[in-house]
Design a protein that fits this description.
Blueprint: H1 4-12, E1 16-17, E2 23-26, E3 38-40, E4 46-49, H2 50-62, H3 70-88, E5 91-92, H4 102-105, H5 109-125, H6 127-133, H7 156-170, H8 174-182, H9 189-200, H10 203-206, H11 209-227, H12 238-267
Parallel strand pairs: 2-4
Antiparallel strand pairs: 1-5, 3-4
């Protein structure tokens, strides 16, 4: 557990992790009756559920190298997934710290939604590379042969849909677009998405520097307004919740694209697009990372009282 954050940084290409090195334990049940599998506090500590996360991991190491049945491997993999998810919450760009996002996070439903969605979507689709980084297949043989469902059916499908559209428009692909969001703090998530769409449409070539900040803010605001609708998506039938979530993600992209279309007309259309300007602090994930099924299991749902998990 002492290198859990290092593995998250290496897999994601983030500048650093904000983890303060402290690990605590979540209550068996929260005040609202929910099971909190993991959470990150605003002083950058991580808490894990004793029975559902810590104990399976301890059991896995106690029986290192031994063959296990699929049901046991699912318990282990689920616990590892929670660890990766929580550590993804703590990724940050150079010179930034997650603590600075606290005030805006607590008043913006759109930031809470995309933060939880990005962390779950990225950690779920890139769990195999995380396992490889920690060399856990030597500890639990065949751990990569089982697949756990993703969580947060209200937030994750919307984020996956948005990342897919951003990746398609930019030519980066959905996982790279998702990765570029995963490596920043919560308050920087929507600016990062707007910046990606701004450059994917070639606006960095035609919009003067003095107007670019305002232009990106308009794109950001348009997408956030749509994403805020997730607050009204209830926890009803799973398929219905997921379908509504996907619609919100696609609508968020469409809203941002409408703004970029207007800006292209305003500042002069760009005839040729050659992709996004590379980020100097980021590298693409290695090819061959196995994405997992983006299904959701309400019984796996965690909650973060302070920070969305």
């Amino acid at each position: 557990m002492s290198v859990q954050h290092v593995a998250a940084v290496n897999v994601s290409g983030a500048d650093h992790s904000c983890w303060n090195g402290l690990i605590g334990t979540t209550p068996d049940l929260a005040d609202d009756g929910m099971v909190v599998l993991g959470e990150v506090t605003w002083d950058n500590a991580i808490h894990y559920h004793e029975k559902l996360v810590k104990q399976p991991l301890q059991e896995m190491f106690d029986h290192a190298g031994e063959e296990q049945d699929d049901r046991t491997l699912l318990r282990y993999r689920h616990a590892i997934g929670i660890v990766f998810h929580e550590n993804t919450h703590l990724l940050a760009a150079a010179g930034t710290d997650r603590k600075s996002s606290q005030s805006i996070y607590q008043v913006s439903p759109a930031i809470k939604a995309i933060d939880e969605g990005v962390r779950e979507a990225f950690s779920h689709s890139n769990l195999d590379p995380y396992i490889d980084e920690l060399q856990l297949e030597q500890v639990a043989p065949r751990i990569k042969d089982v697949v756990c469902p993703s969580k947060y059916p209200r937030f994750t499908p919307a984020t996956v849909a948005l990342a897919h559209q951003l990746g398609r428009r930019s030519g980066l692909g959905s996982n790279e677009a998702l990765r570029r969001l995963a490596i920043v703090t919560p308050s920087a998530l929507w600016p990062a998405a707007a910046h990606l769409l701004f450059e994917a449409n070639g606006l960095h070539r035609v919009v003067p520097d003095r107007a670019a900040l305002v232009a990106r803010s308009e794109i950001e605001a348009a997408m956030k307004r749509q994403f805020a609708r997730l607050a009204d998506v209830g926890d009803g039938l799973l398929l219905t919740t997921r379908a509504k979530s996907v619609m919100v993600g696609n609508d968020a992209f469409a809203a941002g694209q409408r703004v970029t279309d207007r800006l292209r007309r305003q500042y002069g259309d760009v005839p040729v697009l050659d992709g996004v300007v590379p980020l100097h602090s980021a590298h693409k994930l290695a090819s061959g990372n196995r994405g997992e099924r983006d299904t959701s299991a309400p019984t796996d749902r965690g909650r973060t009282p302070e920070a969305g998990r």
